[in-house]
Amino acid sequence: MNLFEMTWPQVDALDRNTPIVFPIAALEQHGRHMPLFTDSLLLGEIMRRVQQRPIASKVLFAPLQWLGNSHHHLDMPGTLSASPRNYLNLLQDLCENFLAHGFRRLVFINGHGGNTTPSQQALFELRQKYRDRKDLMLAALTYWDSAKPCDEIAGLHQQQMGHACEWETSMMLALRPELVVGDLDLVPDIPFGTGASPGYRGWTMGDRSEPGHIGSASVATATKGEALFGVFATGVTEFLERIAGWDGIGWDL
């Protein structure tokens, strides 16, 4: 079910245990070879594939939110970003709207790394606000955490998601190859590095990568991209099935 296709009486007629899904992404630089809208295009395609499966009749999908928390990419022109606190407030307002309508299961499906912490923090704060509501399910999932592609796809070079990397570039080659610019063989590998591991170090993209990407775009292929879309669409679907099937009581799904 798509929210933008419905009238308000149709929404009002839904069971209040219907999960409400908010896809959240970004518009930000993706190196010199990838379009600014990469995160939104890729998440949009994953959600399109999810909506072709039976789960689509059990959940309500809000339109994709393309503005994300991308301040760490602002050194590269074209990036649009909501500041962290404003972004937290935006996500909480989306949830508060549907809480006001009486819905109890709210889910962020995320397609941008910079949104991961804010989306989790937004839900953490909401849960404290509504701490006496034992019927609420407030959940978030970043799509590449939904599956382990290296266990299912032969030939992947990277073991994790990067930025305008093998995985994202492969998916864009499968989805919109005309938006991938230049000769990928000439795109240098940018290592992930260790930073302050196992601790955390604050960073901007310029700290880690002059061209604006991290990973190995040169080994990307459309075949890998199609396989990645399939794996991630299945992972997101399985997660939403768990949300829809929650018994409304327990901690575990």
Notes on the protein architecture:
With 253 residues, the protein is α/β, with parallel strands linked by helices. It has 8 helices and 4 strands; from the N terminus they run H-E-H-E-H-E-H-E-H-H-H-H. The protein has helices spanning 8-12, 38-50, 84-100, 116-129, 149-152, 166-175, 205-208, 222-244, and strands at residues 20-24, 60-61, 105-110, 137-142. A 4-stranded parallel beta sheet has the order 2-1-3-4, with helices on both faces. Helix 4 links the parallel strand 3 (105-110) and strand 4 (137-142). Helix 2 (38-50) packs across helix 6, helix 2 crosses helix 8 and helix 3 (84-100) crosses helix 4 (116-129). The longest helix has 23 residues, at 222-244.
Layout of helices and strands:
Elements: H1 8-12, E1 20-24, H2 38-50, E2 60-61, H3 84-100, E3 105-110, H4 116-129, E4 137-142, H5 149-152, H6 166-175, H7 205-208, H8 222-244
Helix pairs in contact: 2-6, 2-8, 3-4, 6-8
What's the helical proportion of residues? 25-40%
Number of strands: 4
CATH architecture designation: 3-Layer(aba) Sandwich
The amount of beta strand, in percent, is: 5-15%
CATH superfamily: Creatininase
Number of helices: 8
Using the CA coordinates, give the radius of gyration: 19 Å
Mean pLDDT: 97
What is the third-level CATH name, the topology? Rossmann fold
Number of domains: 1
The spatial strand order of the largest sheet comes to 2-1-3-4
Main β-sheet, in a few words? 4 strands, parallel
Helix and strand sequence: HEHEHEHEHHHH
SS class? alpha/beta
Distance between the termini: 22 Å
Low-confidence stretches: none
Return the CATH class.
Alpha Beta
Shape: globular
